[in-house]
Amino acid sequence: MSEHIEASRPNTQPEATDGLYISGDRKNFRLSIPFELRLVAGTTTSFAAGAILGLSHGAQAAGLRFRAENAHRLPNTSTGWYLYHKSKNYHIALGGVKEGLKMGTKVGFWVGSYFAIEEAIDQVRGGRADFLSSVVAGMSVAGGFSAWNRFPLATAARTAKIGLLSGLAFGLAQDALGLAKGQRPFYVDFLFGKKQRQGELLENRT
After folding, report:
1. DSSP percent split of the chain into helix, strand, coil, nearest 5
2. Cα separation of 107 and 153, whole Å?
């Protein structure tokens, strides 16, 4: 009876198919992490990093701007200096928060776009998750970033190169980590399978 119950239970464990681990809903999870979690984690982390950088830059710029705008009317009393520094700190904090939110939103948007494009290309390619999708996603984001900022051709070319190298490095890093977990990219099976077939042909000839 127990054997019959065990046999009737659906298999929810991921199974290896053509060197790729495909889950029960037929999606290939990069690094064994579902796309939704990767998107949320990547966007949140990038937003936090961008917010920190923007906060620092915005606070510094606001402080310099406040000093320049009030250089001709510096106070000459202790009370005046107290109010001056109080107002300066307020402008620094406000400028830092504004720039932090602005920079964090920008960085989070582009990183989220990268993950979304990468996942879309994986699905278009039949669930093959490897560095090729990462490269295409990196160059797509670089192209969109250049178009949004209306970069000249030389700057756009440098941006595309950065997107290509970044996507390649990130994609190969994902492939290496996936391979360490037993999730072999398709090109690994293709290359090793080709070498194996060549070896078999040589053996047959001898």
Report:
1. 80, 5, 20
2. 23
d(CA 53, CA 60): 11
CA-CA distances (angstroms) from residue 104 to 144, 151, 159?
18, 21, 20
Cβ proximity of 89 and 60 under 8 Å: no
> 187 and 133 in contact (C-beta within 8 Å)?
no
Q: How far apart are CA 28 and CA 18, in angstroms?
A: 12
Spell out the per-residue pLDDT of the chain, length 206, in tens: 445 545 555 554 444 444 444 433 434 578 778 999 999 999 999 999 999 999 999 999 999 999 999 999 899 999 999 999 999 999 999 999 999 999 999 999 999 999 999 999 999 988 888 899 999 999 999 999 999 999 999 999 999 999 999 999 999 999 888 888 777 777 777 777 655 555 555 555 55
- Give Cα separations from 6 to 9, 15, 19 (angstroms): 5, 18, 27
**Cα–Cα distance for residue pair 105/183, rounded to 1 Å:** 33
Tokens of 117: 């494009």
